[in-house]
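Extended Data, panel c. Modelled sequence:
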Amino acid sequence: MSATAPLNLRSYLPHALAILIAGTACLGVAFWAKERIEEKTATDIGLVLAQGGHDWAEVTTDGLQVALIGTAPNEATRFAALSAAGRIVDASRILDRMDVQATAAIRAPDFSIEILKNDNGISLIGLVPTESDPATILERARRIASTAQITDLLESADYAPPPGWERALTFGLNALDTLPRSKVSISPNRVAITSAATDFENKRQIERQLSRDVPTGVALELNISAPRPVISPFTLRFLKSEDVAQFDACSADTEQARDLILSAAIEAGLSGSTTCALGLGTPSTQWGEAAAASIRALDAIGSGTVTLSNADVTLVATENTSQAVFDRAVGELDGQLPDVFSLSAVRLERDDQVANDSAQPEFVATRSPEGLVQLRGRLGDDLTQMAVRSFAAAHFGSSNVYPATRTDTSLPSGWPTRVLTALESLAILNNGAAIVTPEIVEISGVSGRPDARAEITRILSSKLPEGSNFTLDVSYSEALDPLAALPTPEECVEKINAAVAQKKITFAPSSTDIEDDAMTTIDSISELLRDCQTVKIEIGGHTDSQGREVMNQQLSQARADAVLNAIMARRVLTSNLTAKGYGETQPIADNGTEAGREANRRIEFRLVLPEAVADDKTTDAEPEETSQ
């Protein structure tokens, strides 16, 4: 038995080795096949993903399982990658290990409102934050429109209002309330307003008012149009010397005519920013050509002035002008002017004949900054003296005119006309002087009107005899401009408070009659209100707590109305004023003491700021008190 056992084991050994070798070979083939299958699957899926633009995805395989790894830009792209891989292998074999890129916070939409206002009503279209409360905006629009129709095309989005939105919205609605026909575009920190004014002065007033009221940080774009004014006489005056070339007045009927005139003036030496007023009333459609030809003629002469007043053209050359140059320029201009225009050309002569001042007749009128006017020099007969004094009194006020003229019957023809025209020109100035001699009329001074030079030129060119010479030295002062000097709403109330502080308004006991000694305060307030016609002010009546509440309310209302009526009686427009009685509901002191009750019996002038949409605020002025 023991001898045969080793023999049996040796007989099995080759078989065992064969089986081991075969198993090892099968295992190797299996691993090789697995690697080939995984590699083929990964290659095929990778190719499909690349063709689909999914370069961000990576493919890993583990046997029959396929894993997709990577960060997809969005959920839709991730799903597309899964679908592409599913076309190569069964979807159950795919492991989704992809991430989706975090999306940025959704940007708030661009909020804006377009508001159109005309005689038929108000239309609102746009997108507003929910916090701005579209219902409140519509309610404000209904109050502005009164009985007119409201068209609501507003939508809202639940986002926080962007910086500057509330300021711009409040200002835009306030502006809409003050303009009759307009388009208001509102966006964060920006308001664009397009509207029409009744005339040029109204245009300036609207622009100044809106520019003054715009909140800090809000950009304002204004496009206020006004109908072209009627310019009478239609005037242009250009002067040129060795030192300066400038317009005293410039009018044009079209943009093309204006450009033609300015081009000729620039060639003649005009510098700086200058424009011509566009208006109606031109005597000819060829005004631009006539004006340009006249300016070129003056440039050829060298120095002097050229004035066009309607169809009359006056060319004045200085005494240094060569006669030959003058004659040639006049001849060329006469041939170039359209038929409707008539030319008068004057070459000043040197005056060596004047021996002394007494031989040269002269009239001088001066106006001081306080408005006092002195008349000196020579006038004709007594009738002329009376006419000049009456004319001056009508323009400046009889108490402001000091006549110191003397009679001279040897004055040249047309002297009264020259004097009266000079006085009319002086009335345009806040202060200055008018000097009249036989050869020239000189006007100099300061005015608060930006168009003072042009207006004086129109007066002189239309009323002086044809061919008359005149000079202007007129400057504009913004401090004297009544529109530029209009007080702000806050300044209006501050000035009223100052007047009230000097003298308190009082009433007769338990009466609505304003006492006589308080009328001076009413007078002062009325004068101040003339410069505050667009400022909304509430006159509030208040009482102490004595008596019944209903009676106190009625008494306070009646007293507020009495103040309003007293102001109206002084011919002050009161459309911006309201009267309201509060009775005893708003005490400012203790009603338990006589001093407190006296303080509570009062009239308050309250500045009513235009309503805000999100945060309705008002500014109260210092109280003006009255006795009950």
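Residues 121 and 149 are 4 Å apart (CA to CA). This feature is highlighted in the accompanying rendering.
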